[in-house]
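Quick one, tokens below:
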């Protein structure tokens, strides 16, 4: 096939019939209309000087709240089967907040695009705290409200997005909201989010919902060398970012040594956390190369890593990198998926790639096309190897507010003109046209 930008590539192999193709966004990153909902932890965080690199906030963002019809038209033109968006808990807590999602779901259904809501994507109401166990119960109550309102049209649900990153970046390292630097004292945040997930699954089932999953972030962990210290550090990192979030959900247990560090009746909680899922969502961006600690002030990915950590993150050399500095390693997606299949066997339900994407500048974004092309082919190799993969969602439909990076990173298939807030003009990039042609060839 050829993209509108004129780049020829070999045809993407065909995926099985019924494979779900989509794109993803999140509420705080695109909706704007912050004055029409209650504050979230991200509103508090971004109001503090120095928290966001360009000093921006998501008060307006892409103004999707007011321009969602235009964005649904982009989805329909793109030809995706499904749209993964998130529901803002702070907006649902505000008068008329659910009305917006009612309208959005109606418009998606009318456009022939399946709505796939994520019920938590980091925008916790500012008055709540994941360090408190009760937040998990409050989440289940909110989920029940959303399910009662949207469940007659929504047939696929996601409970949480990336509890690992929300714990690590927001509560352990302090570079995301709410900006805490608790290091390993942040572990209760992870447990309470997973408990919230399990309670949400129960609430959704009680409301008659089916086809429920979670969106966990995962990536292969590679030791920096065969030396024992590097291998042990990599194993620890794998537990912390992969196994600690997959195994409670899939196996009903934490990796050895983790459970005793957590609050409450962990064994009873695990019975809730391990509520059976219909599918398991994986967000994949890159593998991690990990070695033994390197001492005070080690820099990685623009962050100064605390000296207390029992590992250090190292660069993956001889690979192209995105504008974010993340290595481009498509074959690691195949490795990740076959590794999950081998590790979890029949305890692993069908898999959906709920996020995969990259940050690049420009409308003629050939690097993004190459990235997506490589990762879709890597995904197909996993399918050929016997992994039951049912869908793939690109991150993201729109350029957006990229958390602590502000508007400096662009992940969208569609360019948004943040320099002109009066119009916030949307312009499909070359990658949008490439993805549309690829989807047409799959049908």
């Amino acid at each position: 096939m050829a993209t509108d930008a004129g780049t020829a590539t070999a045809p993407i192999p065909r995926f099985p019939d019924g494979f779900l193709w989509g794109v993803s966004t999140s509420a705080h990153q695109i909706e704007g209309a912050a004055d029409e909902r209650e504050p979230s932890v991200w509103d508090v965080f971004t109001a503090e000087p120095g928290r966001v690199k360009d000093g921006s906030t998501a008060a307006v963002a892409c103004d999707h709240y007011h321009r969602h019809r235009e964005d649904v038209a982009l989805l329909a033109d793109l030809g995706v089967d499904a749209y993964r968006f998130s529901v803002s808990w702070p907006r649902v807590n505000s008068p008329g907040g659910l009305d917006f999602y009612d309208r959005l779901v109606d418009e998606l259904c009318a456009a022939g695009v399946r709505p796939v809501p994520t019920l938590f994507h980091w925008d916790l109401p500012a008055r709540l705290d994941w360090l408190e166990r009760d937040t998990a119960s409050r989440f289940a109550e909110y989920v029940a409200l959303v399910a009662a309102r949207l469940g007659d049209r929504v047939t696929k649900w996601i409970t949480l997005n990336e509890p690992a990153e929300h714990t690590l970046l927001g509560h352990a390292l302090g570079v995301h909201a709410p900006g805490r630097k608790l290091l390993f004292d942040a572990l209760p945040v992870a447990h309470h989010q997973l408990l919230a997930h399990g309670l949400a699954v129960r609430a959704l089932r009680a409301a008659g919902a089916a086809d429920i999953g979670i969106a966990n972030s995962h990536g292969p962990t590679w030791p920096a060398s065969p030396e024992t210290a590097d291998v042990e550090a990599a194993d620890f990192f794998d537990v912390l970012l992969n196994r600690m979030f997959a195994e409670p959900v899939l196996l009903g247990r934490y990796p050895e040594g983790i459970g005793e560090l957590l609050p409450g009746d962990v064994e009873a909680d695990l019975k809730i956390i391990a509520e059976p899922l219909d599918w398991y969502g994986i967000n994949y961006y890159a593998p991690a190369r990990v070695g033994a600690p390197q001492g005070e002030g080690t820099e990685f990915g623009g962050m100064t890593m605390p000296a207390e950590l029992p590992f250090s993150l190292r660069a993956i050399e001889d690979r192209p990198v995105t504008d974010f500095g993340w290595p481009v390693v498509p074959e690691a997606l195949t490795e990740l998926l076959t590794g999950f299949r081998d590790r979890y066997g029949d305890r692993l339900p069908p898999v959906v790639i709920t996020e995969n994407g990259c940050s690049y500048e420009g409308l003629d974004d050939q690097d993004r096309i190459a990235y997506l092309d490589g990762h879709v082919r890597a995904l197909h190799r996993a399918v050929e190897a016997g992994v039951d993969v049912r869908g793939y969602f690109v991150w993201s439909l729109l350029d957006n507010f990229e958390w602590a990076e502000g508007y400096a990173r662009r992940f969208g298939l569609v360019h948004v003109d943040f320099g002109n807030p009066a119009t916030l003009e949307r312009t499909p990039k070359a990658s949008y046209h490439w993805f549309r042609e690829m989807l047409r060839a799959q049908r």
